[in-house]
Amino acid sequence: LDAERWYASLLNAIGQDLGLTKELFAYWGANQTFGPLRRLLGALEELVLPWLGERRLVVFVDEIDYVRSLPFPTDELFAGLRELYNRRADDPRFRQLCFCLLGVASPSDLIRDVRITPFNVGKRIELTDFTLAECAPLATALGPQGPALVKRVHYWTNGHPYLTQRLC
To answer: Is the CB of residue 67 less than 8 Å from the CB of residue 27?
Structure first.
């Protein structure tokens, strides 16, 4: 997977969710002289933000730690996200756009160039282990033995969120 396809895939996901795929890829194709990140950011600014009106858009990027294995430098992605955040100071439309990066990586794992620090504006959310009470709602999907099964799963996983969810 090269940078061109990766950024196009991200744009495609946004376009599908908003019903703007055709318009976004028309923009993508008409701006081939720019790199893929610049085209992604331009499409967001010129097409998505006007489409939003007063609404807000949160783009969830799951498995962000996957970027470590991509065969191209991804530091520019995080610098681009930081650019979108910084533009909020001059253009209030950018306050309607937010990126939520999900995964199991620290900022230092994601950025190779130590001179880039885009994560000092984000919020880190620590996911702690579930208590037995927090696991209780999972029992409803497991039938009559649900409470006993959840109790046993919690015993074996100690409430680890991923393992608990997978086993229940």
So the answer is: no
Q: What is the pTM of this model?
A: 0.72
Kindly report the backbone phi and psi dihedral angles of residue 37, in degrees, each rounded to the nearest multiple of 5, phi listed first. -65, -45
Tell me what percent of the residues of the chain surpass a pLDDT of 90. 57
Cβ atoms within 10 Å, residue 156: 10
Write down the residue that tokens 């029992």 correspond to: 139
Q: Say if residues 11 and 40 touch (Cβ distance below 8 Å).
A: yes
Whole-angstrom Cα distance, residue 59 to residue 9? 13
User: How do residues 78-125 score in pLDDT, each as one tens digit?
Assistant: 888 888 999 999 999 999 999 988 887 777 777 777 666 656 666 677
**Angle, alpha carbons 155-62-40 (nearest 5°):** 175
